[in-house]
Amino acid sequence: MRRPIILEPEQQSDHAEALLKMIFGLSTNFISLPPDDVDDGINDVLKAIGTFARVDRSGVFQFGENGDKAGRTHEWSSNGAGGRLENVSAESLSWLCGRIRSCEVVHISDVWKLPAESARERDEFRRVGLRSIVAVPIVSGYSVMGFIEFESLHEDKVWSENIISLLKIVGEIFAFALSRKRIAEALKQSESKYKALFEHASEAILLVEGGVFVECNPKGLSMFACTREQIIGRSPIDFSPPTQPDGRDSREELMRKGRLALSGTPQFFEWKHRRYGGTLFDAEISFSRVELGKRVFLQAMVRDVTDRKQAEEKLASTLENLRKAMGGTIEAIVHVVETKDPYTAGHQNRVADLARAIGTEMHLPADTVEGIRMAGVIHDIGKISVPAEILSKPGKLSQKEFELIKDHPQTGYEVLKDVEFPWPIARIILQHHERLDGSGYPQGLKGEDMLLEARIIAVADVIEAIASHRPYRPARGIEAALAEIEQNKGVLYDASVVDACVKLFRERAYRLR
Ligand SMILES: [Fe+2]
Hints:
By secondary structure, the protein is of the alpha+beta class. The chain has three domains: 9-187, Beta-Lactamase (2-Layer Sandwich), CATH 3.30.450.40; 201-304, Beta-Lactamase (2-Layer Sandwich); 310-506, Orthogonal Bundle (Hypothetical protein af1432), CATH 1.10.3210. Helices cover 46% and strands 16% of the residues. It has helices at residues 16-31, 38-53, 94-101, 119-127, 161-200, 218-223, 228-231, 250-262, 306-340, 347-361, 366-377, 388-391, 399-405, 408-416, 425-430, 452-467, 478-487, 495-506; strands at 57-63, 69-77, 88-89, 106-108, 132-140, 143-152, 204-209, 212-216, 267-274, 280-292, 295-304. It has a six-stranded antiparallel beta sheet, sandwiched between helices. It has a five-stranded antiparallel beta sheet with strand order 8-7-11-10-9, sandwiched between helices. The chain is elongated. Fe (ii) ion binds at residues 379-380, 408, 432-433, 461.
């Protein structure tokens, strides 16, 4: 290591020229001192300036992290120097510490003459046999790190301006060196924290420099099923298939994302990776820029999401199976209803298809449309409790018979209300004979009190009923059906539903199946 210049005894003097020479030597040497050599350097300088100023002791005190104590971190003493100040607590030497914190120079030539406000300092100085002291703050940026001091044990001393200037300049040099040392220590600490994180992470962490892997943690080795030698020096491209499932070129995509991350925009993405042996796996990757020491790396954190993907796929297929099972159950219900009431055979399916088409024409979400279709398929399930002879009666129904038929929305609701559909099927069925003006049944709901799905089924139901054959009358045709809903648009039937329905038949060539 390079050490600061230490003046030989014959060079010692209070002379300004010698002082300048010393300061010049100290500062040029200190600037290039490696952080690990700072402590030795400071001790050497304390010796040099202590000898130069002919003091009994020179020292550096630094404030602790919470600032309530100043500890002696560096010291030089001439032969035979007696007792010494150790740790200076803010409480025991509050007057001294307070003045140092206010960036003042503390210059005491005779400790016996200290004023009453500094009685604690006076007792402490006398206890260790101190006669005179001069202390100068060490300031880094806007914070006072501590102080540098000269002590005289054997005589009362008036410290010259030159000596105080020397301490101020040396204090500045020390502040610079100590800050550098603190930064280096903090960096070392954060590097060792990073290393611990790196070694024990539950995700693969890989460092890329110059387009190749330069580091890989143990988790990375097990994830890519390889040894260190098989991955270090290789490109990330070697651990990816040529293209990704969506057709993107792996090389181009990795290079693009790497560039973005290195320029300071972290990247998160899903990726198809390849293990060393060739098997593919699904991963989630985050790319970010890290600086370690003076080197810049692309850090890739990789999480194997194969299990999660498989679970998602399993869940999707379970849902699909459930949907199919539900569809099967509904088909069975439809079959029961239609065996009992052959005249409405196909009615529900035709209503369901028209309602689905209306929902789509209205740009409703696909899931809502699916719910409407499902409700349509079983909307007359309540007819199961109406006697078959009434349902298939060729002539006009009596008032009493009609009342029985009017029960079917409520019956349908009762049958289905406890079934857990992902849609409000039971309520749609309950409301499918309601009318916008409150003239419908069973509740006489008005306007938006009706579910939109029910307003759609209602229109589809009326169209299908008028256009098709009934036991008590022949089919009246689609034009008559459309005339009915257009005449009562906004009165009995929702205007936007009517518009969508009319558009289907007139412009989209929709036909009842
Ligand atoms: Fe009905």
